[in-house]
Amino acid sequence: MMEPTRETKQTGEAKGFCIAVDGPAGAGKSTVARAAAARLGFLYADTGALYRAMALYFLRQGIAAEDEAAIAAACGEVDVTLSYDGQGAQQVFLNGENVTGLIRSEAVGNMASASSACAPVRQKLLELQRSLAAAHNVIMDGRDIGTCVLPDAQVKIYLTADPHVRALRRYKELEQKGQTCNLEEIEQDIKERDYRDMHREIAPLRQAPDALYVDSSHMTMEEVVRTIAEAAQRKRREMEAGQ
Fold first, then answer.
1. What does the chain look like in DSSP terms, one character per residue?
2. Beta bridge partners of 84
3. Could you report the per-residue pLDDT of 52-98, keeping only the tens digit for each?
4. Is residue 5 pLDDT above 50, yes or no?
5. Is 36:19 a contact under the CB 8 Å cutoff?
6. Which of 127, 161, 175, 221 has the lowest CB atom count within 10 Å?
7. Centroid of chain to Cα 120
8. Sheet holding 155-160: strands in order across?
9. Contact at 8 Å (CB) between 122 and 203?
10. pTM of the full predicted structure?
11. DSSP string, 114-161
């Protein structure tokens, strides 16, 4: 169900140039990665959406976040696929249902953070992520893309921001959607999710040794996008010079 963007179709260039963007919750990874992908003519792969789709299934089945045995058993019942429209917009399907608009709630995010520490969940999605990166020029964001999923990615970015800044961004986003929310609770959720992501036994969140560290606390989205695009362009020039 994965279709290349129109620009990728037209260029006919070699595929497999990968940009890995890792970082904690609320750092703006998806927003800037999507914008950078559009600028570079790459496919954008939001891997967090894959974990959120699985998390949605677990929640629908009434499975508790701490019940790893039930989560592992349910993995065999889940089929997560991606589809891209003519503009490269990603759509996420859960057992054939388009759940793109259903996976951004705090409850789903918290379940995704908890269930992503379960080995069967990560293994189920690993092959999908790697096959996507092998077939296209992609920007892929998540928690362990540069360290585990795509350790050979040509460009790696570790994107972060102060927890309060991240919470404020999320608060404003939810407010704009008309959702009632509490800034202190959101910040506490972010800190707890950071701790879980950084201390889980399997593929913990950390900066890859060769990743460019980007703190977006006082940067505009355009500045972050430009930083990523310039890093990719530098790497391409280096690769071309080495040929």
1. -----HHHHHH-PPP--EEEEE--TTS-HHHHHHHHHHHHTPEEEEHHHHHHHHHHHHHHTT--TT-HHHHHHHGGG--EEEEE-TT--EEEEETTEE-GGGS-SHHHHHHHHHHTTSHHHHHHHHHHHHHHHHHS-EEEEESSIIIII-TT-SEEEEEE--HHHHHHHHHHHHHHTT----HHHHHHHHHHHHHHHHH-SSS-----TTPEEEE-TT--HHHHHHHHHHHHHHHHHHHHHH-
2. 90
3. 999 999 999 999 988 999 999 999 999 998 887 777 678 999 999 99
4. no
5. yes
6. 127
7. 18
8. 43-46, 138-142, 18-22, 155-160, 212-215
9. yes
10. 0.78
11. HHTTSHHHHHHHHHHHHHHHHHS-EEEEESSIIIII-TT-SEEEEEE-
Q: What is the tens place of the pLDDT at every residue in 138-177?
A: 999 989 999 999 999 999 999 999 999 999 999 998 899 8
Give the chain's domains with CATH numbers: 6-236 (3.40.50.300)
As a whole number of Å, the end-to-end CA separation of the chain is 34
Closest CA to 4 of 144, 134, 152: 134
Residue 206 tokens read as: 């950390």
pLDDT in tens, 93-137: 999 999 999 998 889 988 998 898 899 998 988 988 898 898 889
For 91, phi then psi, to 5°, come to -120, 140
Give the integer Cα–Cα distance in Å for 142 and 150: 11
168 close to 43: Cβ distance less than 8 angstroms: no
Q: Which two tokens stand for residue 115?
A: 């269930």
